[in-house]
């Protein structure tokens, strides 16, 4: 399985990772015959379940890396193996080039407390503590003095939009506010990576969207590396720089949101993205056609990463084609025909036809 990115600036680098539950689990990845069995066959033959099967990928520094899949796809097990909250069966995991599987208990504790913080779906707040003291809890565990940790906690409380609520108890907060406390607690220890395990799935839709916006804002301001687990495609498309789609413990496709929507790897992915508003994900770089000689000097200029939905408005306003321009050079043009083709999904059908013809 390809990693989908250059590993030279990877924070997490994962290779051939397996997590098997059951008796004598280590024999499964070591035996090619057993490793090749379907989930049902493996359980029948060995009594084991492979939650993660031969997975390899890199998480690049500063990106939001989304792992998406339905219930039972292995995504939550996977994220827990990254810091060995669940011990992998085989494979390798490195964090900033350091072998995570070789860490002793002390260094593993340091990794979890200082370098990679987890935000869970269940908020896990201490009910007898105030918002401020919940946020400061991780710093307290680290041995930071009371005045320093409360000052840091106050700063983070304000950053996540909870100013004025410092002295409330968790029971006095809404679900969204409680999740902000959980996020603030993770941020307070200033981790290199934030790991989110479906943190917003229990929230109401409007609150969930608000929390997504909060994650986007924090990432824009801080550029912190994030690994985000979700079963929701729209959430994955909103948040992810890259998305890794899993099924049955395996990677089905890994790519940018645009790559996954525009070029689904198989029918499973195609079904996943069927109802996605393509114009809100696909850029004009994919929609453009070559420019005729007379078109290179006319029409409004659009950057290659301009979304089709914005290009539609530009074409409608001007009444003519728009140029796709990068570095002062016209790469191509888009007009109503190209843009409508994207909206209707005809470009995807053409790509699929070309791929099919190439294999004949």
Average residue-wise pLDDT: 88
CATH superfamily of the largest domain: P-loop containing nucleotide triphosphate hydrolases
What is CATH's topology name of the largest domain? Rossmann fold
Share of β-strand residues: 15-25%
Query: SSE string, helix = H, strand = E?
Result: EHHHEEHEEHEHHHHEHEHEEHHHEHEEHH
Number of helices: 17
Major pleated sheet = 6 strands, mixed
Question: Which structural class do the helices and strands define?
Answer: alpha/beta
InterPro entries: AAA+_ATPase, ABC_osmolyte_uptake_ATP-bind, ABC_transporter-like_ATP-bd, ABC_transporter-like_CS, Gly-betaine_transp_ATP-bd, P-loop_NTPase
Organism: Streptomyces piniterrae
Protein name: ATP-binding cassette domain-containing protein
Pfam family, one: ABC_tran
């Amino acid at each position: 399985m390809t990693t989908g990115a250059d590993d030279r600036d990877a924070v997490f680098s994962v290779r051939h990772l397996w997590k098997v539950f059951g008796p004598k689990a280590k024999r499964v990845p070591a035996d090619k015959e057993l490793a090749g069995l379907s989930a049902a066959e493996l359980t029948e033959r060995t009594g084991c379940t492979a939650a993660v099967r031969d997975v390899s990928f890199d998480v690049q520094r500063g990106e939001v890396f989304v792992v998406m899949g339905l219930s039972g796809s292995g995504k939550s097990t996977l994220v827990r193996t990254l810091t060995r909250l669940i011990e992998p069966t085989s494979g390798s995991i490195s964090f900033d080039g350091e072998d995570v599987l070789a860490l002793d208990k002390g260094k593993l504790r340091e990794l979890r407390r200082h370098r990679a913080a987890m935000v869970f779906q269940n908020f896990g707040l201490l009910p007898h503590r105030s918002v401020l003291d919940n946020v400061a809890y991780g710093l307290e565990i680290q041995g930071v003095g009371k005045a320093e940790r409360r000052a840091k906690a106050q700063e983070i409380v304000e950053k996540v939009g909870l100013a004025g609520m410092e002295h409330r108890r968790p029971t006095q907060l809404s679900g969204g506010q409680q999740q902000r406390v959980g996020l603030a607690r993770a941020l307070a220890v200033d981790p290199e990576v934030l790991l989110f395990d479906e943190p917003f799935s229990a929230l109401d839709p409007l609150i969930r969207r608000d929390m997504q916006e909060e994650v986007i804002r924090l990432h824009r301001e801080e550029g912190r590396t994030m690994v985000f687990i979700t079963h929701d495609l729209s959430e994955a498309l909103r948040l992810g720089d890259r998305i890794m789609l899993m099924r049955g413990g395996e990677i089905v496709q890994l790519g940018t949101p645009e790559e996954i929507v525009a070029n689904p790897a198989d029918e499973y992915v195609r079904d996943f993205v069927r109802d996605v508003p393509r114009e809100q994900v696909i850029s004009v770089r994919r929609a453009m056609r070559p420019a005729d000689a007379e078109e290179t000097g006319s029409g409004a200029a659009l950057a290659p990463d301009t979304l089709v939905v914005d290009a539609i408005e530009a074409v409608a306003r001007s009444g003519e084609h728009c140029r796709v321009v990068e570095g002062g050079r016209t790469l191509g043009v888009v007009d109503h025909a190209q843009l409508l083709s994207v909206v209707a999904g005809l470009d995807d059908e053409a790509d699929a036809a070309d791929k099919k013809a190439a294999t004949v």
